[in-house]
Design brief:
The complex is a heterodimer of chains A (138) and B (80).
Chain A (H helix, E strand, L loop, with lengths): L1 E6 L5 H9 L5 E6 L5 E2 L2 E10 L1 H18 L2 E9 L1 E3 L6 E7 L2 H18 L2 E7 L2 E4 L5
Parallel strand pairs in A: 1-5
Antiparallel strand pairs in A: 2-7, 3-4, 4-6, 4-8, 5-7, 8-9
Helix pairs in contact in A: 2-3
Chain B lengths: L1 E6 L1 H7 L3 E5 L6 H11 L10 E4 L2 E2 L12 E4 L6
Parallel strand pairs in B: 1-5
Antiparallel strand pairs in B: 1-2, 3-4, 3-5
Classes of the chains: A alpha+beta (138), B alpha+beta (80).
């Protein structure tokens, strides 16, 4: 079972845990991303996330399809937040349940690493004295 | 043929709009589109990289534009 969601509203880790716990699994891996207060010495005021939503959902589906074909997993959840986020807010939650821990860890790691490379979501970091589209320039 | 290009993130700021329209020759490819866009918006060349998507999928350089209904420019992604 797969649950993919892009949301303008705050993500709810409790809800994600409840959904992923509801299975006959031996292990669950949960990754929660969080907005840091500082990036390379710059004090972060807020982050703005946007996406090409229909393509982002499609790319996330490719990722979860690959996970299901590669590892023995039971449930896979990917929730990504959009809009304006502040320090401490949660931009992403990934959860995987599996019979054994190796599959859960490996799949979870694969999802976040691949998401960061391929899914059309962009974040702009707003600092006290400037702003930057993350990863845009070499 | 006239093609509309959707833009996101820094590409939207470079275009000054979330959608621009550009005139391409029949049979033009993704590579041709890149050349056209870079001539019109030289700041694209300063990006770490960028991709063109056609109908919600990353498109190869030799992909022809004719059959694509929706085209988008995808600057370096930074989700997560």
């Amino acid at each position: 079972m797969v649950d993919i969601k892009m949301s303008q509203h705050p993500l709810n880790p409790r809800e994600c845990v409840d959904w992923i716990m509801d299975s006959e699994c031996g292990g669950i891996d949960l990754f929660i991303g969080r907005v840091r207060s500082e990036t390379l010495g710059n004090k972060v005021v807020q982050l703005e996330f946007e996406s090409y939503e229909q393509m982002a959902v499609k790319e996330l589906k490719l990722i979860t399809d690959h996970v299901i074909a590669t590892w023995s997993v039971q449930k896979v959840l990917v929730h990504h937040r959009l809009g304006v986020l502040r320090v401490g807010d949660i931009p992403v939650i990934i959860a995987v349940s599996a019979e054994h821990r190796d599959a859960a860890f490996d799949a979870c790691r694969y999802i976040i690493d691949t998401l960061k490379r391929t899914v059309p979501i962009w974040k702009k970091e707003i600092y006290e004295d400037g702003e930057v589209w993350v990863a845009a320039h070499p | 043929m006239k093609k509309e290009i959707l833009a996101f993130g820094i590409a939207r700021e470079i275009f000054g709009s979330s959608c621009i329209s550009t005139e391409m020759q029949e049979g033009a490819t993704v590579a041709d589109l890149r050349t056209t866009l870079e001539a019109q918006f030289p700041r694209l060349r300063a990006l770490a990289s960028y991709m063109i998507a056609g109908d919600d999928e990353y498109a190869a350089l030799d992909r022809k534009l004719d059959s694509l209904k929706e085209i988008a420019i995808i600057p370096p992604v930074s989700g997560g």
